[in-house]
Amino acid sequence: MSSVLALKEIEKVMEAYAKAYAETQIEILCGYYKIDLKEALELMKTKKGAGKKEKEEAKKATEEAKEEAKKATEEAKEEAKAKKGATGKTKKERKLEIEIELPFSGEIDEKRCYGIRSAGKLYTQCLIYTEEGERYCKKCQKESEKNESGKPNYGDIEERKEVGLYEYKDKDGKNPLPYYKYMRKHGWTKEYIEEISDIYGIRVSEEHYNEEEAKKGAGKKDEAKKEAKTKKEEPKETSKEETKEEPKEASKEETKEETKEASKEEPKEETKEEAKTKKGAGKKEKEESDVVGSKAKKEAKLEMEIELPFSGEIDENRCYGIRSAGKLYTQCLTYKEEGERYCKKCQKESEKNESGKPNNGDIEERKEVGLYEYKDKDGKNPWPYYKLMRKHGWSKEYVEEIGAKYGIRISEEHYNEEELKKPVHQKGRIKGRPKKEEKKVEAVEEIEEVETKVVLEEEPELEVEEVIVEEEDEDEEDIVEEIEEEGNKYLRSKNNGLVYSAEDLENPTVVGIWDKLNKKIDFSYKECSDDE
Fold first, then answer.
1. Is the pTM of the predicted complex or chain greater than 0.85?
2. What number of other Cβ atoms are within 10 A of residue 165's Cβ?
3. 24 and 125 housed in the same domain
């Protein structure tokens, strides 16, 4: 502090000295040039005042410029906030998500962006939904502004529609990739493609199917890979090839359908306390916060481990809307408020529709007709429940047990005993030895040749499957994971939850199924055998 005061005193002394020196010099000059000293001193004071005034004006102008810049910045921030949603984040564009690529067949979805996406050289319509009045999504709009043509990089979908399905040419002059080649590469059948297209309401033209080409293998290169792969397998375990190939093929043709139809609305995991409160009829209401200014009460919802079919009985406490439920068309799981017919979501849908009902209809309409006679807005019947059971490996006893737990009766019409007895190859279903990692076994050349002949004679269909499967699919060998419960070790399938004994890997046995709700093994589960 003392040093600061000393500096100020020195500054005053220096200022006084400079002033005295300047006045002395002025006095000498005035005497030399015969100028009045007083007049000269007055003139110096006037000039000094003018300089100070200019400085003040410059400072004022600088401050005004800063204020204007600050005001412009605040206005820009307010405009940015106005464009944002209630959460403060920019509204995210909705996108149509499909498990596989489907080809363009001449039909345009008016709600989606009119830009063309490459889609593995198939050149299909952009999957992003546009805002009302807009032609392109944000990404395609930026591309169109940069391009001289005023269109996205791959063009406008209406240009694609004006020519034949395979006559269109991209910016490099290339035609679309034939879809049957795409099908052959991934191992997709025509039936599988049509099932996926029906789910999303996208028609696939017959022009895309080339039956003869689709049935062909991937060539001699793939046959050589098959022979090399066969020689690496153990002589005694002919089921290894089955374990590798069948789940891969099934995962493309069967399990992906299940992903959309059953798993899309798969129930969320629950805590033990929630599960206990939802036993019986499952008429639990969640607690509501009474804090002033808090958000609206969250609607209670019935949550189950698996999807159960509709059997003609309506829960009066739940919403009367119909949910898709993997094309099972069951009653909405949300509990409605007293005096209301629908939950908030179904109510919004009913207000938008001319029928005054939710998108999938009213559950009383479902009740008035047979369990499998009901038709949705697209004219499709419900998915047979026994197919869902067979795909997941659920037994009749297991389904009945879940139904009894939540007070839901399952009609005998949903069970087709003959179909349930048929074998089904699921992704992750282990036949033979469950593998944690693949081991290479070298065998005598003579034994390898015998095994190769046996596999080709007993499983002739595998020749086609082997050819179709890509080499990159070999990475999907991680089928099971090791878990521990009550000091014992087990192997759990990552795909279907089946639990195997870890004691005898040569002859694995199913000991139960993983209970996602209680986070433990359900030892009461009994697997449906293929011979029953």
1. no
2. 19
3. no
